[in-house]
Amino acid sequence: MSDKLIQLLGDTLMSDKDTPLEAAAALGDAEHIGIYFSAHWCPPCRRFTPQLAKMYTTLRGDGKKFQVVFVSSDKSIEQYNEYFGEMPWLAVPFEDRARKGSLAGEFEVSGIPRLVIVDRAGNVVNESATMDVMKDNTGAKYPWVPPTIFDLLGDEVEGKDGAKVSVASLRDKVFAVYLSAHWCPPCRQFTPRLIECYNNLKAAGKEFEVIFGSNDQDEDQYDEYYREMPWLTLGYEDDRVQEVMGRHGVRGIPSLLVFDGTDGGRLITESGVGRGASDGAGGGVPGGARGV
């Protein structure tokens, strides 16, 4: 087990409420570790824990080298002991509150349950695997490597003239997925600012593109709204829009997700709307076009 992972989880893990173990020995030959942020008092956690326990047992029974480490947000040692008693895996000691805080900070945990999958080197495989596990009844998708934005977008999007544009053409540039709708007043306020930024970046020779992901309620609204836009689109009522929103936890619009196509589609920011609103010229875009 890597020093990085041990430094992250600490030198001691619990195998039950009374049995501390050396972390490296407890993790053994595990190839993937689920760091599970949860608490007894949290109803969604208590619904998810049995699902995760069933998955854990199934995978281990199939010979998968999978381990889970519980990171408690319980309010008392009694709650921790009761809840941990239901779990078949390891845990960070309850009294190590500093470790719990550092782990929550490392993975930017703002809500529970949250399952983070890392490999034995401590590299993040999936920073939010809870829903992936819930949707995977058999463990067929273990270790739940999340799809890239290229996987979600598929092979083609549409250009302004209706022609098909290869998604592969985005691999040499920074691009954004703009989730918006005609009926949404904040969207209609933001769109002209984004158009200004887009045109300025294009005029400056920057490799930048935008793809419209429509949340419009009818096709006439979509057509009217898209006519204002100079960029690409996923089209009207395209399932990929909901897939992108679901994967990135988008709960409101307008939303601008910015990706680096030159780095495998790495997410640069989920907060592109805020940046675009304050930078119509696009001059503050990292790397010339890396976050509008």
Summarize the structure.
The protein has 292 residues and is of the alpha/beta class. It has helices at 3-9, 23-27, 43-61, 77-84, 97-106, 130-135, 149-153, 185-203, 219-227, 239-247, 272-278; strands at 12-16, 19-22, 32-38, 66-72, 90-91, 114-119, 124-126, 156-158, 164-166, 174-180, 208-214, 232-233, 255-260, 266-269.
Tell me what you see in this structure:
The strands form four sheets. This protein has a five-stranded mixed beta sheet with strand order 5-4-3-6-7, with helices on both faces. Strands 12-11-10-13-14 form a five-stranded mixed beta sheet, with helices on both faces. Strands 1-2 form a two-stranded antiparallel sheet. With 292 residues, it is α/β, with parallel strands linked by helices. The longest helix is centred in the N-terminal third of the chain and has 19 residues. It contains eleven helices and 14 strands. The C terminus is likely disordered.
Strand content: 15-25%
In angstroms, what is the radius of gyration?
22 Å
Q: Write out the strand line-up for the largest beta sheet, numbering strands in chain order.
A: 5-4-3-6-7
Average pLDDT level: 92
**SSE topology string:** HEEHEHEHEHEEHHEEEHEHEHEEH
Tertiary shape: elongated
Distance between the termini: 39 Å
Number of helices: 11
| Category by helix and strand content | alpha/beta
> Major beta sheet, specifics?
5 strands, mixed
Number of strands: 14
- In the predicted model, the low-confidence regions spanning at least 5 consecutive residues are 283-292
Helix content: 25-40%
